[in-house]
Amino acid sequence: MKSYAKMLNAVKYVGSIVLTLGIIIFLYGFFVSDYSAVTGIGIGTIMGAVFIFLMGVFFVATEEMLEKRYKGINVGQLKAKKGAPL
User: Fold this and answer.
1) How far apart are CA 83 and CA 86, in angstroms?
2) Has residue 27 got a pLDDT over 80?
3) Residue 71, Cα to own-chain centre: how many angstroms?
4) Has residue 58 got a pLDDT over 70?
5) What percent of the chain has pLDDT over 70?
6) d(CA 53, CA 83)
């Protein structure tokens, strides 16, 4: 569980830094700059931050599920009743 928390914290910090940078670029492009390309770069940066965060959370959840797949109750093979189709 410790490695999952480390990876989740790393994704959280990187995503928040990129998101903050994207918001700053977007606001600069929208209010200050005359170039509309700067606004698009800001929007793209914000979308990239969201993508980084979602992919990181997905990877952490996938690793945890793969590690826990062998834990659980071992269920034996069920026997069919006499005359029931298999």
Assistant:
1) 9
2) yes
3) 24
4) yes
5) 80
6) 54
- Domain chopping of the chain, boundaries: 36-65
Question: Which tokens go with 17?
Answer: 């830094």
CA 9 to chain centre: 12
Distance, CA of 71 to CA of 82 (rounded, Å): 33
Q: Is the separation of the CB atoms in 46 and 19 below 8 Å?
A: yes
Please, are residues 47 and 26 in contact by the beta-carbon 8 Å criterion?
no
Here the tokens at position 1 are 């569980």
Q: How many residues does the chain have?
A: 86
Averaged pLDDT for residues 40-65: 94
Q: Which residues contact 33 (CB under 8 A, 6 or more apart)?
A: 39
Contact 22, 74 (CB under 8 A): no
Q: Give the residue carrying structure tokens 């029931």.
A: 84
